Input
Amino acid sequence: MKRTLLRYIGLALAGVLALACSESTTVHGTTGSDGDELEADVETFPDGDGETDLWEWENIAPDADAEPDFEPELEPDPEPEEELETEVPPDSACLAMVDTSRVFEPLPDEGDTQIHPYALFDGGRVWLAASLPDRGGSGRFDTVLTKLGCDGAALIAPFVVNTAPEVNNIDPVLAVNDSTLMVFWQGDNGLGPANMDIYVRRFDREGNALDANDWTLEPARQGQTVTGNLMMPAIAVDPASGGFVLAALWGIDAAPGFQAFLQRFDAEGNPLGDGIDGCLAPESSQASPTATVDASGVTHAAWSESDNAAPDDERVKRTWLGADSETPASPVTVCPQGVCGTPFLAAGAAEADGVYLAVSVLDGSQADIEVRPVASSAAQDEAVLTLGAGRGYDHTPIVAAEEGGGAAIWYRLVQGIRSEVWIQRFVREGQALRAAGDARRLNETAAPGYFQPTLVHIEKQVYLAVWAEGTSPAFRLKARFVDFEE
Output
């Protein structure tokens, strides 16, 4: 949905070939490996300050002239080995430390323009990655990582993950198993046309670097290595094997726009085999890839897709891939009767907990959030839970799973890019989903709706939400622990 959902600008691609799939979003990049120009539907969105930021949001609020009302409804870098606390309470004490009464800053000592948060709970503490301005003043962004206690205080001081010089580093994502913390992000070296790469660096669970420097992912496809044309990483851990699965976009000669692919990694974070096409759609472009792995080892993936000739007609496709398979199932079209995008997947720790897919669905001048359970089948699950329900323009959902349900966080557009941050818990009853309690608003002042928030389940009915808040360029990360039992 070109005019409604999150879009990236400054994309660059190139690629190789794949099997054709049946259905079809548009993105124009730079050139493919054969020198031909790749297409990507690029938009800029004014934020009211007269300048174009990294990404900006088009003013599409129905009441664009209305004044927003923001009354909250709820209350040289240090090395990662430098721990600020030596005595850490045991993991079981996490909930006793949580303070749900306040919004706090997870990066209080860092400068402004804190964006692209991504949080991960490792069973005892919270890892938080974000994009922050380069401390050297270059105008580029660094990927910064910190470890927080369940009281929100830093256990490991924020440190810069990336090491490659002169790269603009954005959109970090995290995944962890019993021994390895994987950090992926998107980097732009500015040397087009092959300027976009996915960067990787590995750490142990104490924050000690396992890689002396970051490295670029170089997936193979039909005998060719794809570099300089990769973006939008999303990462998940496989609870069955301890390995990892990456969903991302690459540029290929067989299609003029981005296409989704999967890459497996072993438990130590080493790539396994070739990259796997999600589903090649030469007449279309794909965006917003997402993936999760259920307790049985099945990978679930989704992306948004639109026909290059009709980029406004955006749909979400989903597929799945068995643990021993190299070929994903034929994709299923999500919300086939409507325009939808920005998918996000999450799976519970136990097989019975299920897999959940959240999307934003356009309904005239409004948009709602839909959450549905998905399975390893082509059956269209009718157990769809609608959040927002016509209350505004809701977009960019993130979902997290718990035993027997989960929670979703999303933006509600107010004016321009200014948005509210909402959260809602849901429970699963058989095959149906039901909202548990009322939705809660989290932000205190305007949140910029083009920087994706993050949500992570802690324990029981406690979640941690992190988002950017404020006006450009003074964006600062805000966080809140939410206990739905309260």
